[in-house]
Specification:
Layout lengths: L1 E5 L4 H12 L3 E7 L9 E3 L4 E3 L8 E4 L12 H24 L6 E7 L10 E2 L9 H11 L2 H5 L3 E7 L1 E3 L4 H11 L12 E2 L1 E3 H13 L5 E5 L5 E2 H12 L9 H8 L1 H7 L4 E2 L2 H5 L9 H8 L2
Parallel strand pairs: 1-2, 1-5, 2-3, 5-6, 6-8, 7-14, 8-12, 9-11
Antiparallel strand pairs: 3-4, 10-13
Helix pairs in contact: 1-6, 2-3, 7-11, 8-9
């Protein structure tokens, strides 16, 4: 199988590429370039330029590219970059695929559980409504931007990804040092739900989505057992054999991270992977304790 991957240099993209290659598939990265001289598939979403004339056709496309939402405090400039890199990039890629002579059978597009917004203790599946605020709005526009591919008959899967846990990067990598130093603790009141998934399982879920024709539209890429921040914190402390007695109150999180604190750290999003489970996908790491045991061994 030939697969085109955008965002191939990120944590998930790197792991996905490695896994696909190990299974004997042919992976082509969609590289960023502002030049038309490249002999690889390349694009520059900011200038709305894309060249897919090299390396194809592809059986599947996995679209992961987008500005890091935790790159810093959410200034107006960064929020525009977060939104535009996802919405405009997805529209650009899907328009190009729709117009190509040899279309892929499927495109798996990254989305996020931020689609649902802060929902307290309510259990959310793929049919649950979107929430209010910056991230839910971005996620709705992000998913809608794939419409050209749908109109062209390409199967589109929106992977609504939770917090990805891996040593290679992301949220867990940032937590390890303070937790190892005994400076970890709950965020806010610790009652907010976290929808998480291991790096291994999110890669496996994406490949499963490529190969499973019944998976269309939104698919929650989260482990089947979301946990509260308190449970997550205590589990990480147990795995590292370190105390977790240094909490970060909500006001301190807001002072440190601004608007991002409410959207990413203090909001409660309790998501379950109904469509993956009903399609027969089996998680290697369904529990948070098992996930930490595997990742931190």
């Amino acid at each position: 199988m030939k697969v085109l991957v955008s965002g191939a240099s990120g944590m998930v993209g790197t792991a996905l590429t490695r896994k696909l290659n190990s299974e004997g598939h042919n992976v082509t990265p969609l590289r960023r370039s502002n030049s038309n001289q490249s002999t690889d598939p390349n694009w520059d979403p900011a200038s709305e330029r894309i060249d897919l004339s090299h390396g194809g056709p592809w059986d599947a496309v996995v679209h992961l590219a987008g500005e890091n939402i935790a790159a810093g405090r959410w200034t107006d400039k960064l929020k525009r970059a977060i939104r535009d890199s996802r919405v405009n990039g997805t529209r650009l890629l899907c328009n190009a695929l729709a117009k190509s002579e040899h279309k892929p059978a499927v495109i798996v597009c990254a989305s996020a559980v931020g689609y649902y917004g802060d929902s307290g203790d309510v259990e959310l599946n793929e049919d649950s409504p979107s929430g209010d605020g910056f991230l839910p709005t971005v996620c709705r526009e992000w998913e809608a931007a794939a419409q050209p591919a749908r109109d062209a008959g390409i199967r589109v899967v929106h992977m609504r990804i939770g917090v990805v846990l891996g040593r290679e990067g992301g949220a867990l990598a940032k937590m390890l040092t303070p937790f190892k130093l005994g400076a970890g603790g709950i965020l806010g009141n610790g009652k907010q739900y976290m929808s998480w998934i291991t790096l291994n399982d999110v890669v496996r879920a994406m490949i499963y989505a490529i190969n499973t024709e019944s998976l269309v539209g939104p698919v929650n890429a989260v482990a089947p057992n979301p946990v509260t921040n308190r449970t997550f914190t205590k589990a990480l402390g147990r795995a590292l054999k370190r105390p977790t007695i240094v909490p970060m109150p909500a006001f301190a999180a807001r002072m440190a991270f601004g608007e991002m604190a409410d959207a990413l750290l203090l909001s409660s999003i309790r998501v379950v992977p109904d469509r993956l489970v009903h399609a027969g996908f089996e998680f290697d790491h369904p529990s948070i304790d098992g996930a930490f045991a595997s990742i931190l061994k």
